[in-house]
Amino acid sequence: MKNSNNKILNSKQYQSAKILILKLRYFKFINLGFWICLEFSILHLGFICSIPCLLPAGTSFAGEEDDYNLAFKLYNDKAYILAEEKLRKFLINYPWSETERNTGSNKYSNVQYLLGECLYNQQKYNEAIREYKRIVLFSPVDSTAEKASFKIADCFFEQKQYKDSAEYYLDFVKKYPKSLVLGDAYFWLAESYFNLNQIEDALKYYENAIAFSSKFLDYSYYSKAWCLIKLNNLSVAIETLRVLIKNYPDGDLFLKAQDLLEKSLYHLATEKNKNKEYNASIDLLLGLFQDYPATKFKNYALYLLAHNYYAIEKFNNAKQKFLQFTEEFPKNELTDDSFYWAGWCEYKQNNFAGAILKFENLDEKSSLYPEAQFRIGESYYNLKNYMKAQESYKRALDITKDVELIVQLHYSLGWVLYKSEKYKDAADSFKKAGDYLDASYMSAIALYNFGEYKQAKQYFSKLGNPESVMWSGWCEYRQSNYDNAIAMWEKINTADSLYAIGLAYFTKKDFEKAVDSYEKFITKFPKDKRKFEAKLKMADSWYNSGNFGKAIEVYDDVFVNAIEHSNILNALHGLQWCYETMDNYDKILDITLQYIRRVPKSETDLEFILKLGDIYFRQQNYVSAIAEYEKIIKLYPDALEILKAQYQVGECNYKMGNLDSALQSFKVISESNSESEFVEMARDRIKAIMTEKLP
User: Fold this and answer.
1) Cα distance between residue 426 and residue 211, in whole Å
2) Is the pTM of this model over 0.85?
3) What angle do CA 47, 50, 51 make, to 5 degrees?
4) What span, in angstroms and rounded, lies between the C-alpha atoms of 48 and 96?
5) CB of 156 within 8 A of CB of 143?
6) What letter would DSSP give residue 56?
7) From CA 593, how far away is CA 602, in angstroms rounded?
8) What is the C-alpha separation between 166 and 313, in angstroms, rounded?
9) Which residues of the chain have a pLDDT value below 70?
10) CB of 684 within 8 A of CB of 664?
11) Would you give the distance in Å from CA 568 to the centre of its chain?
């Protein structure tokens, strides 16, 4: 015992004070902190150690046990209001139990915990919190303190005070790391953070709940998946949901997990599409169709799958899926879109007739209808059906209000009219297209082709680029303003301009400067494909200047070295002109035969047969001439040149003195209904021969 100097209350005083405190602490207006301070003050007087001797010896506790059992039974029967009343009375009537004094049991803490549970089950969460906190405060090492700590957090959670519940759950997992309900605590901690929208924290503790085998494992997997979805980590969310579905096929969340997995697969596929990971999106969608053949996302998923195929240019696959959509969802909001894109698939593969059929399926009320009409016009344009293309463009113009589309339509209409050689109308359409693509340039080109050179030049001048300067020069050239054209072309100093300058000098018959320009062109641009054309123009300039030697030299160079047939043929003609002017028919025959050997098919060409016949005739080689002319009669009986060939056969025979044969040829010609000059010439020859035959 403490010494006499200590101020110790006697047993009766203490007991009265203790009971007073216990009664006061259950009145609602008594602050929890107030009674704790009051009780602590009394206990601090130093009589705690003398508690055993404060009660009269031999006091019976049979009533205490009965009251406890009754309260416990009421609790188990879920009669929480009655149980609460009995438990409160118990705590007042038996503040210190004999059992606790003699054996150290935790019945008092159990009673306190049961009282908290009664309040919890009545949803009196704040009152329950007070009871649980008393256990934690006064019996921190008691086993009920762990449960009470957990229940305090539960109370806050039930009241949706998630910040407080998170704080207490977090305190619990730190304080009781070996608790059997640690996994559950992690789950509810995660739930608190989830409700606070602290998703990264929630994800962390759901994973802890899974690691510590919470009894809410299936819910932990499900909620973890939701966190991953919210964090846009759909790939891991899908893996998590697959684990849940595999491990808990009979669980409460099985159907929800399947539904969420279905959504996640679709949304991940959408995300991959947006990130241009088209193959990954295709794989996910094919997996979705395999796992969920009747997926509620089938329409959108099918449409997305088609677009993925389109994006990677698998147009046949894309077309198939778009058309499948139209068959399975004929009244869907995306049906017209699917027909439209199916048309594009055909268009991309140059199947323009097929594209037209798909585009024509769009409803007139569809927002894409004007665009579809435009694409129909484009398809007809590529099929060179310019009339149909024009009709489609005009139909689209009549119904659309889309400014951008209107501009495109005027531009395309301009091209249709241009291809139809309606250059004035084409120029007007290109003007309406404004600055779209090369509309201004094409407007000027159309005016040029229409012969409006002055107006065309005005448009070209506004553009100011080298190509437009080139065309401005051509506008001057077409108006015979050769010096102006040359002045413009000299500004840009390109292969085109230098070649055109040579042509301008040639046209104005300044052959010396023409030769000079073409020589500069060949020297400066030796690999230009027009090199031999330039040489031919040089040779023509020498020919027109009367310098046949120089002309022959250049023509011969082209004749021997050129590859393109047109250049070889033009060189041959040039050489023939030169040698004919020089009356050198042997040379003409020689180069003509060279050409025939080089181009064997020309041996049966009407022009060359006739030319050979004429050469032989000039050489007075009438037998060979007749052979060539008769080839024409045999090979080309309907040709216009047939009368000349027949006449020349007659002339050859006449020259050789074969008057009867000559007369026969001339008579055939004279009986012709043709208005050809050879008919009259043949009749004159007949008269002459008949005169010669007179005695």
Assistant:
1) 75
2) no
3) 95
4) 12
5) no
6) P
7) 10
8) 52
9) 1-62, 96-106, 694-695
10) no
11) 51
